[in-house]
Amino acid sequence: MIEKKRINYTKKDISKNLSINIGLSNSYSLKITDSVIQSLKDLIKDESINIKNFGTFRILLKKERLGRNPKDKVIYKISARRTVSFISSKKLNDNLNK
User: pTM for the whole thing?
Assistant: First the structure.
């Protein structure tokens, strides 16, 4: 099985791609990217977000639990926290799998 290398994108990468594809300046596309990401952050804090034909972002509440470092076998308490989960839509999955 061939393992694909994971690629991490930054806001700069996204805004650069946006400026190339649409023809906007780099500074303007960076402002647009920042605005979209900030809007998503603000909306996710309150409730789940469903973006049609893209997917759903929702908050998961993780309980406090005990974890163990496998290297030195020391047990740690992992605090309760909120995390974001993304579930892609069926249409997005179909487009990716073509």
Answer: 0.67
